[in-house]
């Protein structure tokens, strides 16, 4: 990297700021890179100075010696200038392998291809222009703040007669790439935009979509793809080169923009991401925009792998942490994800919540309409203490239906030989399960399975068993004489093949068979319907009173 013209001691007593250098002095330090850009652009000197160098000068007048980040990539003085030039160079270089207007006639391509290359260079040059407006605060020696929206930094310094300026980083700045459009006129004059739009209606929209990070077309944006690949390459090269000189840079902090871009591209172009459609990844309700997780993470990973971007996290957990830290996602109380139940679904779904729906929906036309109801799943609250006390004082409480029974509590001291003959459909009265208010409530029910059990089956079975607890909605399993009856439909609802569940449960000796060589399943009436299911050994469900169950048969 070129040596900056500022001379700063290693440990200055105070902030020395940045010298108010001229544009010529700034570009003199980047002469090698500008020469490479000229060679790649492939035109004569006059055309290069008119089409490219003039834009580079205007860009340098805006970003001056500002770093791109505080303590990460391109964090030295002049970092933002170098970042824009390198990204523009590699983006321009990438156009040699693409034909943007391949479906048009030869004469049309002859007119449009140079404009596409020019637009790609501009998009690469201005890819991080939003940082002027979202990340930094520039002041002169008397504390006056540079109005970055109104004029380039060089012009403001000249008007103030300032010889130095000073930088402060905005606290908790976010990647607001859309702000780039407000600073873009400082770099790209109207005449250039007019030239790019001549004879077509797609180049300028694709250019603006790439710079702002807001997709405007459902078709593939080759221009934006080249810029994103180039920017990732440039950042990774800079981080690798800086690691040995400046310690350990914050790897990964630049990845959130690529993750958000991928989310937006999927939301605007992927049919599986149409909001509120059956089996969609996106659900939009009165309480916000939710994204099914980790299924959405898998889609993002496949898309970015196709883009050949280096350093993209493969684990959904890592991706989730990055987007939570960046403020893209909003965490639930006590956990990172949310439980939602879209209309028409029988089971709850794990999802992440966007901090603002516009992050993904801003570029979709027509704009999606939110569902009239909320999506977050809120379990029914447990009975309050007064209600419990009232119920326990009643001599003859009503029994709970068979579909919502909590546990099989043994009746008062029946003969030991009758315990094994207990009726499967026997119901438990509420008076047997409730304790006086001075005593603690019964222990919660949870699966306690061997570690070798298939994780998919474990999660499905654990969710089903948890419905025995108060406040978890209607119970989807019930107790029978020898254990816990689990309908096979509960595995299907949770995406698990019943055959897989039966096999893995049998291998871990968690099933109770009907006789030594009997079948692993049985039929019984459940919620008024004859249902096929399996019987889970009660020893693998914590919170049950094992004395109320018949001894399970020995495994065959």
Write up what this structure looks like.
By secondary structure, the chain is α+β, with helices and mostly antiparallel strands. It is built from 20 helices and 14 strands. The longest helix has 25 residues, at 222-246. The protein is elongated. 35% of the residues are buried.
Structural class: alpha+beta
CATH architecture of the largest domain: Orthogonal Bundle
- Net shape: elongated
Total separate domains: 3
Helical amount:
25-40%
Instruction: Please tally the β strands and state the result.
Output: 14
- CATH third-tier fold name of the largest domain: Hypothetical protein af1432
How much of the polypeptide forms β-strand, as a percent range?
Answer: 5-15%
Roughly how many Å apart are the termini? 73 Å
Rounded Rg: 32 Å
Largest sheet: 5 strands, antiparallel
CATH top level label of the largest domain = Mainly Alpha
- What is the count of helical runs? 20
Low-confidence segments, ≥5 residues, pLDDT <50?
A: 1-13, 244-253, 394-441
Mean pLDDT score, rounded? 79
What layout of secondary structure does this protein have?
Layout: E1 18-19, H1 23-28, H2 31-41, H3 45-63, H4 79-94, H5 106-125, H6 131-134, E2 136-139, H7 153-160, E3 164-169, H8 180-187, H9 190-197, H10 203-212, H11 222-246, H12 256-269, E4 282-285, E5 288-292, H13 295-306, H14 316-325, E6 329-330, E7 338-340, E8 349-354, H15 358-361, H16 385-393, H17 430-433, E9 446-447, H18 455-466, E10 478-480, E11 483-487, H19 488-493, H20 498-507, E12 521-526, E13 529-536, E14 541-542
Antiparallel strand pairs: 1-3, 2-3, 4-5, 5-8, 6-8, 7-8, 9-14, 10-11, 11-13, 12-13
Helix pairs in contact: 2-4, 3-5, 4-5, 4-11, 5-10, 5-11, 10-11, 12-13
